[in-house]
Design a protein that fits this description.
By secondary structure, the protein is mainly alpha-helical. It has four helices and four strands.
Length: 173
């Protein structure tokens, strides 16, 4: 890619369009789109999955406690803030209101719910790479079985073919 500089004798900043993909709508009207227009929805899904995952992880320490009736009697203040304030020891009664032995209070576990979100986000990231032609190996990561220089060059050329028109249009502009 050669860079040329040109000095324009004008009071205004010139706007030079750099066209992307040339597409046609149903009425045969020409429309130009960039690399972003085709991947906005995929990126929105990645953001949604990541936000949902972060929300679940953030709520994990605040999961509800399960205790038998009467187990926290006399320690209500301590247990009222058990989700928000770290304490060294949570004291409880080992029996319920009828004096029967009861298991220790426990939290409801919600960590397993993130596995589906992680898998969905990973799939969406793979879709994004396929749509843009920018794979991890183009960003410096090495894939298994690609030790030879020839394999790396072939993979780079494959990625460049998806977005070559953008560089060509930039040089034309």
């Amino acid at each position: 890619l050669k860079v040329f500089e040109t000095e324009l004798n004008t009071r205004f900043i010139s706007l030079i369009p750099v066209y992307g993909n040339k597409t046609y709508d149903q009425n045969r009207k020409i429309d130009y789109t960039g690399i972003i227009s085709g991947i906005k929805d995929i990126q929105r899904m990645i953001n949604y999955y990541a936000s949902s995952e972060a929300e679940l992880v953030a709520s994990a320490p605040k999961s509800q406690w399960v205790a038998a009736e009467g187990q926290v009697e006399g320690y209500e203040k301590l247990w009222a803030n058990a989700n928000n304030t770290p304490v060294d020891t949570l004291i409880y009664r080992m029996t319920d209101v009828e004096g029967r032995p009861a298991p220790a209070p426990s939290r409801i576990d919600n960590t397993a719910q993130t596995q589906g979100l992680i898998a969905s986000r990973t799939k969406a990231e793979q879709d994004l790479a396929r749509a843009t032609g920018i794979f991890d190996n183009l960003l410096g990561s090495q894939l298994a079985g690609e030790e030879s220089g020839k394999a790396v060059l072939l993979r780079n050329q494959q990625g460049e073919t998806v977005s070559a028109q953008f560089l060509q249009n930039l040089s034309k502009s």
